[in-house]
Structures are given as C-alpha cells and as structure tokens.
Amino acid sequence: MIPSTYADWRRCIEHDCGLPLTRDFVAARLADLRDPASHHTQQFVRHYGGEHHARVVAWFEQAGRDAA
Q1: Which of 26, 34, 48, 57 could potentially form a cystine with 52 if both were Cys, beta carbons 3.0 to 4.6 Å apart?
Q2: Is residue 3 a part of any domain in this protein?
Q3: Helix (H) or strand (E) holding 66
Q4: 52 is in which domain, residue-wise?
C-alpha cells in the first residue's frame, strides 16, 4: 500500500516498519531525499514518481516539525 495521507504514511513508517521518526532519522532521510544525485532518491522517483516524492519530502518535513 502506498500511503496517500500524512497519517497513513506516519502509521506505515512507525508501526508497520517499526522506525521511530526521531529528529536524526528525519534529518538523514530529508538530506538523502533532497539530493537529486542520490542513487536512493533516483530509484525512489523512478519507482513512485515525482509527485509522490514531493509528498514524502513534505511528510518528512512535517514529521520534523512534529518532533521539535
């Protein structure tokens, strides 16, 4: 399932994947997702598309604000 809302995405990350959205984790993921030269980012965009990539970046940004 590809999440379509922040709440669904957050539940997927924290509960389904068991990854706590700590400040450090969020910062690391944002650094990678914002780097167009990153192999992981390129794969993500190829697999899920640019729109979903932008949504996920925004969700990580929101998670960062929520963790503050």
Answers
A1: 48
A2: no
A3: helix 50-67
A4: 22-67
In this structure, how many other beta carbons lie within 10 angstroms of the beta carbon of residue 48? 13
Instruction: Count the Cβ atoms, other than its own, within 10 Å of residue 62.
Output: 15
Q: Is residue 11 part of a domain?
A: no
Q: For the chain, how many structural domains are there in total?
A: 1
- The tally of CA atoms less than 13 A away on the side-chain side of residue 40 is 8
Residue 57 lies in a domain: yes
Whether 33 and 53 have beta carbons less than 8 Å apart is answered as yes
- Is the residue at 60 inside a domain? yes
pLDDT per position in the chain (68 positions), as tens? 899 999 999 999 999 999 999 999 999 999 999 999 999 999 999 999 999 999 999 999 999 999 86
Q: Of 33, 25, 40, 24, whose CA–CA distance to 54 is shortest? A: 33
